Amino acid sequence: MSAARLVATGFGLGYIPLAPGTWASLAAVAVGVLIHGLGSFPLLLLATLAVIAVAWWSISAALPEMGGGDPSEIVIDEVAGQWLALLAPSFGFWMMGLDSWRFPYPGWLGAFLAFRLFDIWKPWLIGRADRRGDAWGVLLDDLLAGIFAGILVMILAALAHGVLMR
């Protein structure tokens, strides 16, 4: 197995027979929360940018040897998208000055659920990106799902903390 394929499949997570994207997203949340703990939002932002670059490289290199399309074994895109979704609560906690090891569960759980919702449902631009059928589409649909999920998490947090807490 090539290095690109190993990375693209999340070091084997993509070969889990049932819901490999969900397992990869769960692993991404765990590692993302750890990264936030080690360096808060700035470190998670840098890690997210790095994983996007690595995902682009690995998907572009591995996709031709995997037959094209969007194989379910490729899960590095889920990691990139999930970390984009995690950036929203991470930024909020960082701006509030919370201890970096404090990443309350509604934040990461909301980011996980919202990302999976948009990644599976694929509304609007997400679905359009997914239908591209090339390496850029494989990655872009998850990046857009992560952005949409982050926006949803911020809206829900604003409602919960602004409206419901009054």
TrEMBL record:
Span of domain YutG/PgpA: 7-156
Cofactor(s) the record lists: Mg(2+)
InterPro entries: PgpA (IPR026037), PgpA-like_sf (IPR036681), YutG/PgpA (IPR007686)
Example GO biological process: phospholipid catabolic process
Location relative to the cell: Cell inner membrane
Reactions mediated catalytically: a 1,2-diacyl-sn-glycero-3-phospho-(1'-sn-glycero-3'-phosphate) + H2O = a 1,2-diacyl-sn-glycero-3-phospho-(1'-sn-glycerol) + phosphate
Protein name according to UniProt: Phosphatidylglycerophosphatase A
Membrane topology: Multi-pass membrane protein
GO-annotated molecular function: metal ion binding; phosphatidylglycerophosphatase activity
Keywords linked to the UniProt accession: Cell inner membrane, Cell membrane, Hydrolase, Lipid degradation, Lipid metabolism, Magnesium, Membrane, Metal-binding, Phospholipid degradation, Phospholipid metabolism, Transmembrane, Transmembrane helix
Top-level division of the source organism's lineage: Bacteria
Keyword Transmembrane helix applies: yes
Function: Lipid phosphatase which dephosphorylates phosphatidylglycerophosphate (PGP) to phosphatidylglycerol (PG).
GO cellular component: plasma membrane
Lineage: Bacteria, Pseudomonadati, Pseudomonadota, Alphaproteobacteria, Rhodobacterales
